[in-house]
Design goal:
Blueprint lengths: L4 H8 L5 E4 L6 H15 L3 E6 L5 H14 L3 E7 L2 H11 L3 E4 L8 E8 L3 E2 L2 H14 L10 E3 L3 H9 L4 H5 L4 E6 L5 H9 L4 E6 L21 H10 L3 E5 L6 E5 L7 H13 L6 E5 L5 H8 L3 E5 L3 H11 L3 E3 L5 E3 L8 H15 L3 H4 L7 E2 L3 E4 L3 H11 L4 E3 L4 E4 L3 E7 L5 E8 L2 H15 L1 H5 L2
Parallel strand pairs: 2-3, 2-4, 3-7, 8-9, 8-10, 12-13, 12-14
Antiparallel strand pairs: 1-5, 4-5, 5-6, 10-11, 14-15, 16-21, 17-21, 18-19, 19-20, 20-21
Length: 458
């Protein structure tokens, strides 16, 4: 059954971006209208546009460009790019931008990530709501028509990524072996360009740009999708592995034993490193990061700043606090010197630099930051997410609580965060404790409360 135009907007406008199945939910017609609305919203003379290798992205991007130019805006077309390359272009050219990608979603999805000039965030509360209203209401004709120019910024982006590490110091370091699984995504374009000239022997897995994702899904936060990478790192005796998502803005790090580093561990490592050159600076972390993150920031003279989950919130808080760095447990890493935008590539070369500088295996370097045991994110479908949160809050009313993002309960030696999905009737639970036994015991208790009404059929 076809989806009506207005209900389609309900499906594709998310908290941080625009995303849906192609062509049932997102198609050229709606992207043309979104392009026109984005040009109106930003009122910028030029907009920079890029796309990933998905089968739908070229068509959707072309329609968006038609809409933007119909409102008099000129478009700078980057062609194929990663999302962090688009953010670099937005910052470097000081232009609003649109990246056509559905990130880690399956092949049947299409989407758009938008930003203001200087890679500023666009989320539900910072522009998406206005864009949606303009699409619903319709846009008037514009007197002038914009034009389109092509620009290649891959080389400049690669140089920018390498500028984050001391190449002179690395020049004397022993060459490291790195395996990168780019999952047929945009990492196949940007990873070899960024690693060129670094003291690393790089092996790419699945480098062909293929929007059907023939080898495995491009979501490295799912352990199963890292199986090939972990196996290859051990087989080769590589020093580290990197798993990228479809638009290559996110990188998951694997040590030489094939074990995966959490986003919290990498956030700790990078916070300590970046605070060397920015003593006393703020570092932002989202509230589901390990307790080790604010501890490490404080131990290294920084100011830990806690944030809601999501790039638009992280970027906003970084701007307000002039933070040098921001990290999310989901393996998004944000850098002040990267226009406060996230980049898995910058995080990757910084971890490479740390391993080279310290002369220790990554499995040893990670140990000081892994102080607690975490449940990982456990999702539960419930009939009434908010009512469930309130019931759980009442059960722990004698514990310290806050509502920055969902419900966070601090029980001393353990804590948890319970928050709703932005798109589904799901509750996401993250719990951390002093040791594995306590983590499992408390997880069972909290999950029992979350699922109580569902089990009773109420």
């Amino acid at each position: 059954m076809p989806v009506s135009p207005l209900s389609r907007l309900d499906l594709i406008f998310k908290a941080y971006d625009i995303r849906g199945t192609y062509p049932e939910q997102i198609d050229a017609d709606v992207c043309r209208k979104i392009g026109a609305a984005f040009a109106r919203l930003t009122d910028a003379p030029r907009i920079v546009v890029a796309r990933d290798m998905r089968l739908s992205s070229e068509e959707l991007a072309s329609a968006f460009v038609e809409g933007a130019t119909s409102q008099g805006a000129d478009v700078v077309d980057l062609g194929l790019a990663s999302t962090d390359l688009l953010y670099f272009a937005s910052g470097k050219l000081d232009l609003p931008g649109a990246m056509f990608t559905a990130s880690h979603n399956p092949a049947g999805y299409g989407g758009i990530k938008l930003c203001r000039e200087g890679a500023g965030p666009v989320g539900e509360e910072s522009g998406l709501r206005e864009i949606r209203k303009m699409v619903e209401d319709g846009l008037p004709e514009h007197a002038s028509q914009g034009g389109v120019t092509q620009q290649d910024l891959l080389g400049g982006f690669a140089e920018h990524v390498r500028s984050f590490i001391d190449s002179a110091a690395l020049g004397s370091a022993q060459r490291l072996s790195v395996v990168a699984d780019v999952a047929n995504g945009m990492g196949g374009l940007v990873v070899p360009a960024a690693f060129e000239g670094l003291p690393a022997d790089l092996e790419l897995m699945y480098p062909e740009l293929d929007g059907t994702f023939p080898n495995h899904p491009a979501d490295p936060t799912v352990l199963e999708n890292l199986s090939d990478l972990r196996r290859r790192v051990v087989e080769k005796g590589a020093d580290m592995g990197l798993g990228f998502d479809g638009d290559a803005d996110r990188a998951v790090v694997v040590d030489e034993t094939g074990s995966v580093l959490s986003g919290s561990t990498v956030t700790c490592m990078l916070a300590e490193l970046l605070l060397r050159t920015a003593p006393g600076a703020a570092v932002v972390h989202n509230l589901i990061c390990s307790r080790a993150v604010p501890e490490v920031i404080t131990e290294n003279g920084g100011r830990p700043i806690r944030s809601r989950v999501g790039h638009s919130f992280i970027k906003t808080v970084m701007a307000e606090t002039d933070a040098v760095f921001g990290g999310e447990h989901s393996a998004h890493y944000y850098f002040r010197d990267n226009y406060r935008a996230d980049s898995g590539l910058i995080a990757s070369v910084l971890v490479l630099g740390l391993v080279a500088e310290r002369g220790q295996p990554l499995s040893e370097l990670r140990k000081p930051y892994e102080r607690y045991r975490a449940s990982g994110e456990v999702n539960t479908r419930v009939s009434d997410p908010q009512a469930t949160i309130e019931r759980v809050a009442a059960r722990y009313s004698d514990r310290t609580q806050d509502r920055l993002d969902g419900l966070t309960v601090d029980a001393g030696s353990w804590w948890f965060n319970l928050r709703g999905s932005n798109t589904e009737p799901l509750l996401r639970l993250n719990l951390e404790a002093a040791d594995e036994a306590e983590c499992q015991d408390q997880l069972e208790e909290v999950l029992g409360l979350v699922r109580e009404d569902e089990a009773d059929g109420t």
